[in-house]
Specification:
By secondary structure, the protein is an alpha+beta fold. The protein is built from 12 helices and 15 strands. A hairpin with a 5-residue loop joins strand 6 and strand 7 (112-118). Helix 2 (26-34) runs antiparallel to helix 3 (39-54) and helix 9 (220-237) packs across helix 10.
């Protein structure tokens, strides 16, 4: 059994296996054939055979695993999400005969070169597919500017509880870490939010705002299970580029799917598949935009069960009417600091001096005190 097969853990499967190219060993094989009449020829042939047989490289659904060296063994095992870069280097003969050196670098590890691998570009492509990383290609000259589709689950923890417990559906619900009036809600259902109950609301205050509210203790193992299932369902419709949190994922729009009508169709299919395969209680707000930031902002503009598109041509005007807190990444404290900085800037602005020739130059146009949006 090979080293890679022995290293597999439970639930781990091999996606792609690479090997050393015999063409890379051509000099040793040639020397072995030429000197086969003497013992030295057998040594050269044995060296070539050992190099080919002792080097192993594979991509699994969890890791990149490599082993090379016969007398002195070197191994590389890096989780897929920890791999920072995978580079291919080919010389002239490598490009002609299709072999090269693969360099793998990961968080906390040095660069690991694995030489003489056959079909190295195929290995890189398989790695990109396994990690859902886009292969960088020249940007096309296209009017289709939509590149990000962001899926945001509404009241995720509470919605999962309502999906698991049918009696809770349609009722105000608060998810709490413990049943005590002194604690706070870590999630509130859509129905509870209509009464002003939200994340961070104290249980006693929630009871005052909504006397009929019901509380359940958080069950994070269920939320994680639903999360993994939801990611798989979304990824079956549109590639998931990044999981931003337990209830948010950013999906990549490529090629013809950047067209607005096709992107909207994808979003509706995502909603339909989630409702069918995960549950009707898990509703989502989906934002579509030219980047993740704009898509996230769009997803927050309509809740619950929203679907908003912001195109490049609509920017920045589409954002002018939004409050600062409506922009992704701006919280309560940042909003206060921004407002304070704006006031300081206004107070520090110098007062323009009156013109000495004003009396004889006729009426003048007043200068606006604040700039006008263009």
């Amino acid at each position: 059994m090979s080293y890679i097969d022995e290293s597999l853990i439970e639930g781990e499967t091999i996606i792609h296996r690479a090997r050393v190219s015999w063409w890379s060993q051509f000099p040793l094989v040639l020397l072995g054939i030429v000197t086969l009449a003497i013992v030295v020829g057998l040594v050269f042939l044995a060296m070539a055979w050992i190099r080919v047989r002792s080097t192993e490289l594979a991509i699994t659904n969890k890791r990149v695993i490599a082993k090379f060296g016969f007398v002195k063994r070197h191994t590389v095992e890096i989780n897929l999400d920890k791999v920072e870069a995978l580079k291919v280097e080919q010389g002239v003969w490598g490009r002609i005969l299709n072999f090269g050196t693969i360099f793998i670098s990961g968080a906390g590890t040095s660069v690991a070169p694995i030489p003489d691998i056959a079909d190295p570009l195929v290995f890189r492509r398989k790695f990109m597919e396994a990690t859902n990383r886009p292969i960088v290609m020249p940007r096309p000259c296209s009017p289709m500017t939509l590149r990000s589709l962001l899926v945001d689950f509404n009241s995720y923890f509470a919605s999962v509880e309502q999906q698991v417990e049918p009696r809770l559906r349609g009722r105000p619900l608060g998810v709490v870490p413990m049943l005590a009036d002194t604690t706070v809600c870590i999630a509130a259902s859509v129905e509870a939010k209509q009464y002003g109950v939200k994340t961070g609301t104290k249980v006693a205050e929630a009871r005052r705002l909504c006397p009929q509210i019901e509380f359940v203790i958080a069950r994070h193992e269920i939320y994680i299970d639903f999360h993994h299932r939801a990611v798989a369902v979304v990824d079956s419709v549109v590639p998931v580029r990044a999981v931003l949190s337990i209830d948010e994922m950013d999906c990549e729009l490529t090629g013809r799917w950047r067209d607005k009508a096709r992107a909207l169709d994808l979003a509706r299919r995502v909603k339909a598949q989630l409702g069918t395969q995960i549950g009707e209680c898990l509703r989502t707000s989906i934002g579509i935009g030219p980047n993740t930031f704009i898509a996230k902002t769009a997803s927050d503009m309509m809740k619950p069960d929203g679907l908003i598109v912001i195109e490049q041509s609509e920017l920045p005007g589409r954002l002018f009417d939004l409050d600062a807190r409506a922009l992704s990444g701006i919280g309560k404290q940042m909003e206060k600091r921004a407002a304070s900085a704006a006031r300081s800037s206004t107070n520090a602005r110098p007062t323009p001096r009156r013109s000495r020739t004003r009396a004889c130059s006729g009426p003048t146009r007043a200068t606006p005190s604040t700039p006008t949006r263009s």
